[in-house]
Amino acid sequence: MTGATGAVDPSGHDPDRIKCVVWDLDGTLWDEIAVETPTDELPVPRPEMLAAIDALAARGVLSSLASRSAPAVLDRMDAVPGLRERFLAPQVSWQDKSESLRRIAKDLGIAVEALILIDDSPYERAEVEALLPGVRTLDPGGVPALLAAFEDREVTPESRERVRRYRTEETRRAEGERFQGTREEFLRWCDMRLTIGPAVAEEVPRALELAARTHRLNSSGLTPDRLRALAAAAGHELYTARMSDRFGEYGIIGAALVDRTAPGSWSVPLLALSCRVAGRGAAAAFLFWLMERARESGAGEFRVTLRPTDANLEMRILLRQAGLRRTEADDNAGDDGAVLARALDHGDGGGGGDLPKPPAWLHVSTRKDAAE
To answer: Residue 94 contacts by C-beta under 8 Å, 6 or more apart in sequence?
Structure first.
């Protein structure tokens, strides 16, 4: 393994793809079968499995549970200090493992392909592989190799805080379910705030991480190595977006690379946002902020590089809603991509129409330039 962002470990694990490890219970997290214990006490978890879960959490990888067992087992886990809180969106029931994984992915707001299942049962692994072919499965004996794939990865502050922030998201989701009002009213009540500005040096690793790990809200899939090279090139600017609400900080949730080398035009080779903010207007607000800043700088055209994938339909819809349309081929887009563009209205009848506005529930502000 090279340790560079975007590299694949020789074992076949791609650390940029794995966002959550889903653990079986009986025969995996512990040796015994929980429902067959003579008392209400749970089997003792294997120390090496708990250590693996903690090591993954330190590198920003979530853990969940998928166990075909009595739901009461999950309730019993609450009585064991430090055990239940290790797992997000756990599924303990008699449903198929494939269905449990679908629910975990939905609850966490990530693609099911971002999960990996650790299970001692060949049958359960085969069931998941047959019905969810994008999900990798491992016998518990494969855990050391999985950990090794993350050993040399750069850990950003957002990575270290990821598990805590997903726990905050669980609280946010629960409050949303209890809220008496519309979805928009709830978002207004959350007091969501987005701050955008030029990236400073310590934010670059997070921007690279977003380029590598985001898929749902990623315009081009630009590789981290390519992003790093372009961000350092003359005429290019890297922007980041931070978000917060009444529940706490989301951290850096967006990155955008701007190419200003063509006179009168702003071109965005990459716009990428965390899937944690999907459905809250952050992607639209970030895009519209970039368009407004381009217009203020005197640019007459705004462009975005788009590489359509099975995952980024939401981004494609957003770009179209923002008035961007496909233009002539561009070398920066590559063979499988396209360049979308629109004119920027300067109030002089030059075309382009009014620029779209951020969602009303989201407060958007601009950080000062790093050079100021």
So the answer is: 68, 69, 70
For the stretch 259-285, what's the b/e string if a residue is b when 16 or more beta carbons lie within 10 angstroms of its beta carbon?
bbeeeebbbbbbbbbbbbbbebbbbbb
Q: In terms of DSSP bridges, do strands 236-245 and 265-273 run parallel, antiparallel, or are they unpaired?
A: unpaired
What's the CA gap between 192 and 286, in Å, rounded? Answer: 13
Residue 202 phi, psi dihedral angles, 5° rounding = -70, -10
Alpha carbon distance 270, 255 (integer Å): 8
C-alpha neighbours within 13 Å on the C-beta side of residue 102: 10
Are 305 and 211 in contact, with CB atoms under 8 Å apart? no
Angle in degrees, CA 155, 156, 158, rounded to 5: 125
Q: 3-class DSSP state for residue 318?
A: helix
CB atoms within 10 A of CB 194: 25
Q: Which of 87, 84, 68, 67 is nearest to 76 (CA)?
A: 84
In the DSSP assignment, the letter for residue 124 is H
**Alpha carbon distance 296, 245 (integer Å):** 28
Chunked mean pLDDT (size 10), the chain, 372 residues: 40 82 97 84 93 94 95 90 92 96 93 95 97 95 94 82 89 92 95 96 93 92 92 96 95 96 95 92 96 95 94 94 82 68 70 78 83 38
Q: Which amino acid type is present at position 278?
A: A
Instruction: Please indicate, yes or no, whether the overall pTM of this predicted structure exceeds 0.90.
Output: no
Task: Name the 3-class secondary structure at 141.
Answer: helix
Dihedral sign of CA atoms 125, 126, 127, 133 in order: positive
* Extended strands (E) in the chain: 20-23, 62-68, 91-93, 115-118, 136-138, 192-198, 236-245, 248-259, 265-273, 301-306, 325-326, 338-343, 362-366
Count Cα atoms within 13 angstroms, Cβ side, for 282. Answer: 32
| pLDDT, tens only, 150-172 | 987 778 888 888 888 998 988 99
Which residues does residue 303 pair with via DSSP β-bridges, in sequence order? 267, 341
Question: Distance (Å, rounded) from C-alpha 321 to C-alpha 288?
Answer: 11
